Amino acid sequence: xxxxxxxxxxxxxxxGGSAIAVVLTQNVVRMAFxxxxxxxxxxxxFFLLGADFVGAAQLLVYVGGTLVLLIFGVMLTASGPxxxxxxxxxxxxxxxxxxxxxxxxxLSTTGAVAWDALPSSQHQQKxxxxxxxxxxxxxxxxxxxxxxxxxKDLDRKGTSGQLSTGYLLPFEIVSVHxxxxxxxxxxxxxxxxxxxx
Amino acid sequence: xxxxxxxxxxxxxxxxxxxxxxxxxxKRNAIGVLMGVELVLNGANVNFVAFSRYTKLGLDGQxxxxxxxxxxxxxxxxxxxxxxxxxxxxxxIDVDRGDELKx
Amino acid sequence: MPALFAADSSIAKFLSDHIxxxxxxxxxxxIHAVLIIHFFAVAPLFYIWLERKVAGRIQDRLGPTRVxxxxxxxxxxxxxxxxxxxxxxxxxxxxxxxxxxxxxxxFVASFGAFLTLPWxxxxxxxxxxxGVFFMLAVMSLEVIGVVFAGYSSGSxxxxxxxxxxxxxxVSYEIPMAICALVPVIVAGTLNMVxxxxxxxxxxxxxxxxxDPFCCLAxxxxxxxxxxxxxxxxxxxxxxxxxxxxxxxxxxxxxRWSYFFMAEYASMxxxxxxxxxxxxxxxxxxxxxxxxxLFASIREVGGSPAEGVTTLGSYVxxxxxxxxxxxxGSALVFFQIWIRWTLPRLRIDQVMTTCxxxxxxxxxFLLVGVSVWPLLLNSCIGRTTLVPGEAAALGNKVPxxxxxxxxxKTVAISLTNxxxxxxxxxxxxxxxxxxxxxxx
Lengths: 197, 103, 439
Fold this sequence. Notes:
Structural class of chain C: mainly alpha
Distance between the termini of chain C: 35 Å
Helix content of chain C: 55-70%
Oligomer: heterotrimer
Largest sheet of chain A: none
Shape of chain A: globular
Number of helices of chain A: 7
CATH class of the domain at 1-79 in chain A: Mainly Alpha
Strand content of chain C: under 5%
């Protein structure tokens, strides 16, 4: 077993195991803790897959940002210390059965497809950038956000023909979306004035 | 156990996804439901990045997973604002208590 | 396999040649981790001693004098031994599991930041292409441990401290990241080693002197970094006069000391980022000395994968590391100085400082530094203030530069390793006269 495979199993077990722990835990703050472990290990998986920028973004935005927000929400909505909201055991069993069935369907589907038959990315030789296997997809990603596709266009010769468009427009849309969300969340969560005062 | 490939990543993603769905279905705490959504989105992200590594999807998979991360952050912000409003109105965060349709 | 542990150090190369790739990289990772954890543990010893001495001098007293001779330099060690001996208490009202765990979360987050800190030219635990971003990302995790510590203690003081900390750090993360982006825009890369190499030569090449926006960004960054490692005057999370000791009120013994180790290590980490981004990293700033020292590495070390194993290069790297440590420690000293000189702000003042002043200022700096080369180019005809260029990065950096082909203006084009230019977005006739390229 090589080092990367070993690391994969460590991260995979941590991600999957703590995802299950999120479901089984009843205390919402401990759920948040297990969620952090799960998302952090997922970031580790991203690093293993050579997507270092996505992994770091996962750490920064998800674990460092969104989850802190969630914990904040937990504290703001706690009606007592260490609130517990028990799920009905019957419901939990039912959900467990349905969940296992769903997992079985997904896993059997996954196992039934011969993924090896897909054309692999390993054979593509790219000019001018570290291949994604070396784990630096930062520059190609940045280029694709400003409308260039180095992974697709770099090995073409000359200036003729149609170039790939990249992700300039989705990027802009997402940034406007974020602004809208910012305003919307601030509006929703604003402190309301009491009636009559 | 030699050679971790696409299938193993898809299995992990499947586990994350199903955990998220079960979490969404069983939790009574609104923020617990939110955490389930995050897990589901993460399962999808693992899929995207794994396909970008092992198939010809290439950079597209990573870009889409970045968009998912950004949108998940936005979604969490709005959902949290809704949860806070819910708490202000009902003095609890139990979603089972939010069964009346008038404001 | 090479995806994670890119062969960037001579150790990795040497070991993987001799005992195989898997064990070689594994052992290399272990060696790097052990080296860093030693720094991580020893640096707080020194900084806590320094803090006490400086505090003593500022308040016109002596500071520690007993343990270890006249200067009390063993005082921290004695304290550490005392802390290890203390009972590891867990309050009855606490959530025991999270209470015991949160010091480690803080510790790990702070430790992770050292992964991509460049100690010297090529001396870096993991030379990631996203170095700056990774450091900021990992350091943002520290707040989670603090919030958990505050929440799980089952004490209202700790909870207040944790909440304040969460609000403060989440807010200050934003201007901190934006200010760190300012020199990154100048450099055109997030790679810490590359950013360091671009500042070789005379100290006028340091990014803090590169342009007015970078210069301002350094001071804003330092203010924000001081706040983000919760140092006075921004240490509301542990304000003794209001909150007993904030989030670590209930902690004792070795777990308490983890928080402090992490705090002092983070102080150095943010100072290290400032050193690498603004203050020329491991360079002395005097061109002849740097040339003499680092030229020997550069010839081979331009591509670090080739490995530099001569004794001389190790000595040179050791000198570089010493310079880096001195610069970083000077910034830590400034943080200590500020702490014992300025009064603490109120929590609303802390938030106002961040959201109403520092955030708009940093956004302005970010825009300013992007426009600066264009402005210079139209005024004096070159894109940098100081004539002469920083060290070229070779072909590793594809250029984003406006050029014209025929009637159409290519706003953005790529240059690959073979010198071929690939055009990107095409704009119709509007010609772009200014070129924003850094050769």
